[in-house]
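Quick one, T. Sequence first:
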Amino acid sequence: MKVPFFNLKAVHEPLKKEFINAFNRIVDDGSFILGKDVEQFESSFAKFCNSSFAIGVGNGLDALKISLKTLGIGYGDEVIVPAHTYIATWLAVSEVGAVPVPVDVCENTMNINPTLILDKITPRTKAIIPVHIYGLPCDMDAILSIAKERNLYVIEDFAQAQGATYKGERVGSFGHINACSFYPSKNIGAMGDAGAITTSDSELARKACMIRNYGSNQKYFHELEGVNSRLDSLQAAFLKIKLPYIDKQNEERRQISLFYHEKLKNLNEVKFQSIPPDYQSVYHLFTIRLNNRDQLFQYLYENGIGSLIHYPIPPHLQLAYKFLNYKVGDFPVAEKIANEIISLPFFIGIQDTELEYVCEKIIRFF
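Structure tokens:
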């Protein structure tokens, strides 16, 4: 048997006619940039996130960069980021001219450790970016308390956690302004690159709208230095079709995760991401950790099972950030996770027989 790491067929096949109809309508209408489809999706996504506003942009990295620019963060500023995250979180900070200041993560949740944040705050610190890793919300009460005490902005990176809840409230609604990716493999994905910003602050929403569109809200009149990063009508139409199904699909993800937990829970060598009480993960990925991760990765490959490593090298040890002068040992928990983590096949529509096969092979490996 072959089991792919990821497959979108079960998500897209039932909606194919709707996608084609949307494509034909937009081609006939000729409205390809911004317009009605974008406005309708923004309104729906804002409501989904329990935010007042959503602003569609070109991709998740741009969502982070525009959020930072909207808050006036740039050269000479510092931004707190997790030591364990996809590098986009760091790139957004450095691309606006600010400095990413990493904080190690909690070993059990793999999210940023709030107890370590205060020691990293300096007079130049302007914001904290919590990343809800693998679909699990961060400890937002602790982060928001620190931000309020030190007069800092909070920007949620909820690219991997669309629909997740913290104490009953959706992520993407806690920060001053928040950033999301709709990369195709995300819980709700476009058919190409796309992203969004959420906020309940009308002035921040106004500024973000202008920045994404050359700093303008009236053609050829430019109030701000902006960029060109607009959610196009076609991707908005596809996302609008997919959005009503996300809660049901997130529940399916939870059921798949329960299957893995039940089958693998007796393996003493395996560690799972911990889900604290009152946190609801949407399992963007299903990860396990073990000492001989690389051997398991190869073994699964030899048995026709796809797996990936998220992420093998922490950002502080990437060549791109060599200039920050971090070294091995500076963020030991993030480094340990990078050496142990592996993501198992996980997608909507995966069959029980496929899950059984994966679990059987992992048990045999041990």
